[in-house]
Write a structure and sequence with these properties.
By secondary structure, the protein is mainly alpha-helical. The strands form 3 sheets. The chain has a 3-stranded antiparallel sheet with strand order 4-5-6, with no helix packed on it. The chain is rod-shaped, with a radius of gyration of 27 Å. The relative contact order is 0.20.
């Protein structure tokens, strides 16, 4: 991992060796440190935006809400340390049969359910508390929405019958949702580490050449 402290100390030693007074040395070090931090802040924000996009794609407001920069380091993490927010399969039959009608023979209940049309879901960005992340998520969701307006429209809804005789464990089960961000986070942090090394090296070299 890139270490700006060590490189700044190396610059400090180099400046002292050139007989700069301590006040001047400290002023140069402070300026170089601010420059590194400002450039890396932009890279960190770009990394957050990329991970917010991943969170929107996988519809995980939980991941986006937990996403944060690690204190004292140029890398991102989740507040809980968890990177997998996947959801297991969810049996829906009991919920579907609420207010169901009794069968004519009295052997159970049934309900005709429309299928094939997506329900109205709350946008992911509406569940995000952090304003900056919410803006990034809304911007990305808007671009996806614009694409959906011009892509081919699917077929109309069909109807199926849910009954109390069906198995709640095998029928009307919402599939598991894969929301694992382990690789996404690793890729972005690798990018940030490369950026930090490049920025630190360039800034330190520029001050060595200038002074």
């Amino acid at each position: 991992m890139a270490n700006p402290f060590l490189e700044l100390q190396r610059l400090r030693a180099s400046l002292r060796a050139r007989d700069y007074d301590e006040e001047t040395v400290q002023a140069i070090i402070d300026k170089a440190e601010r420059e590194i931090e400002m450039e890396m802040a932009e890279k960190v924000q770009a990394g957050i935006d990329l991970l917010v996009q991943s969170g929107v794609q996988k519809k995980s407001a939980e991941f986006i809400n937990e996403l944060r920069p690690r204190p004292g380091a140029f890398m991102l993490e989740t507040e809980s340390g968890n990177t997998d927010f996947s959801e297991p399969p969810y049996p829906m039959l009991d919920k579907l049969l609420s207010n169901a009608k009794p069968m004519k023979d009295g052997s159970g209940v049934y309900k005709v359910v429309p299928v094939g049309t997506p329900g109205k879901q709350k946008p992911v960005y509406a569940n995000i508390w952090d304003a900056q992340k919410a803006i990034a998520a809304e911007r990305y969701e808007t671009s996806v929405s614009q694409y959906n307006k011009v892509k081919p429209v699917g077929s109309k809804a069909n109807f199926r019958t849910a009954t109390s005789k069906q198995s709640r464990n095998t029928q009307w089960v919402q599939p598991a949702k894969e929301k694992d961000f382990t690789q996404d986070l690793s890729d972005v942090n690798a990018m940030l580490d490369d950026s930090a090394r490049d920025i630190i090296e360039r800034v330190i070299r520029s001050y060595e050449e200038e002074f």
